[in-house]
Amino acid sequence: MFSDAFVTVMPAPETGNPPSLDTIAAVATAVAPGQGGIAVIRLSGPQAQQAVQAVTRFPGQQEWASHRVLYGHVLAADGVERLDEVLVLVMQAPRSFTAEDVVEIHCHGGVIAVQRVLARVLEQPDVRRALPGEFSQRAVLNGRLDLTRAEAITDLVAARSQRAAQLAMAGLDGGIQRRIGALRERLLDQLSELEARVDFEEDLPPLDGEALLRELMEVREKLLELVADGERGDALRSGLRVALIGRPNVGKSSLLNRLSRRERAIVTDLPGTTRDLLESEIVLEGVPITLLDTAGIRSTTDAVEQLGIARSHDALASADLVLLLFDLSAGWTPEDQALLARIPEAVPHLLVGNKEDLATVMADGHDAAPAVDVTLSAQTGAGEADLVRLILQRCGALTEQPLLLALNQRQMDLAATAAEALHRSEEVAAQGLPWDFWTIDLRQAIQSLGEITGEELTESVLDRIFSRFCIGK
Q1: Which residue has the higher pLDDT, 415 or 438?
Q2: Measured distance CA(172)–CA(151) in Å, rounded
Q3: What is the DSSP string of 321-345?
């Protein structure tokens, strides 16, 4: 069927993988029309090598071996049509991401070529499309990664700033695993002492209950610190939504353009220029910020402007912080006061006086403004640094202590559960209950910490965790 220029690649040796394990395949890179010079299709499982060998032909004398790159073409089912020119990377178990046989096909990017090659691979026996996060899940189940490292990978992929990437790398390097593991070991030591007293108290020296409680409370404090750091890290990972509101023509669009360093919004002297909700993605001191430039909220008969104003009201409710801009040169007006009243009580806000470069004295006939948080000029940039600092402070994203690692939301919930279980030990101690009562809450704390690292997890919980990963990861 093939010319002499093609050689047959011998099947790979047995790797010892369980024969019942499926072989999975998926695109492991982003796919978009006209985007990306290459795309990677990843296979993992006992049939990964045979499946790729069945659809690919390699010219010349190329050796199929682990951690080698081969050049060839993926052929259609008729064995003649070339679907794409590819490179194939072979990684035999256990030296791969999943600790199984893994083969990657590096083909051209875009959409059509990638989907044609993937469809050809999925035609092979015992090969199916991977579920979201299934590659990472197999890496955890096979002992290649602990759960915190696997979760750090998806955080790294989703990082929107350098600081978020640095936090993800701290988790990928095992920082979370080591911190949580060390705290869990301290609790296990105390549990073993308690259980020894429950079974053999008469044969052992008395246990110091006060020292035991101090140790448990120290661990609890460490967990609460990790939870607090996780909340700070959440701002770095997820970013913050900051809404700009104000009367028409007070400088909201000018401020957005200054902070984003590009002409994102149209700026004119006409009131009501912004007729819809504009969004701009920026990074301030390592924190991703989504700036929401709202339509000027005012009474209007313009149907399009009314729709923009309605969206502005929605933005206020969903924002992490609201910046209320008013014109220093015009003074504080009843309209400004009405806007201030529209900000939901649960949403923090900053009162920003703009057009500092034009303001000389407060305009007559206007009420005095409430306490102004910062004054600036969106035109000249005066006061911009103070505004950035206040934004981060008010959102809790700026502290003096450097953030070295941060738990994700799942990990924070479990750490908080463990801390609460340890807190109940104070009540047990206060009531003078027997040692076996102490073990109940201590076991729960240990189990919660084990769920963070993956040492105590059910299959259903693992499925739920990895279902949030992207396909191909």
Answers
A1: 415
A2: 8
A3: EEEEEEETTT-B-HHHHHHHHHS-T
Partners of 354 in beta bridges: 327
Amino acid at 364: D
Convert the pLDDT of each residue in 437-455 to its tens digit.
888 999 999 999 999 998 8
Dist. CA 314–CA 318, nearest whole Å: 7
DSSP code for 458: -
- For residue 449, give both structure tokens: 């910490």
Q: Rounded to an integer, what distance in angstroms lies between the CA atom of residue 273 and that of residue 278?
A: 12
* Stretch 95-109: mean pLDDT: 95
Q: How far apart are CA 309 and CA 281, in angstroms?
A: 21
Element (H or E) spanning 287, and its range?
A: strand 287-293
Token couple for 188: 């296990």
Q: Which strands form 287-293's sheet, in the order they lie side by side?
A: 278-284, 287-293, 240-246, 321-327, 349-354, 374-375
Residues 202-225 have a mean pLDDT of 85
Asked whether residue 156 falls in the same domain as residue 28, the answer is no
How far is CA 104 from each of CA 23, 29, 435, rounded to the nearest angstrom? 13, 11, 55
Tally Cβ neighbours within 10 Å of residue 113: 17
Nearest to 294 by CA among 274, 264, 273: 274
From CA 410, how far away is CA 232, in angstroms rounded? 15
55 and 174 in a common domain? no
Q: H/E element holding 430? A: helix 409-430
| 203 and 300 both lie in a single domain | yes
Q: Quick check: 368 pLDDT over 90?
A: no
Model confidence at 391, pLDDT cuts 50, 70, 90, reads confident
17 domain-assigned: yes
Total of domains in the chain: 2
Q: Which of 92, 119, 141 is the last residue before a domain boundary?
A: 141
Contacts of residue 328, Cβ cutoff 8 Å, sequence gap at least 6: 353, 354, 355, 356, 358, 359, 375
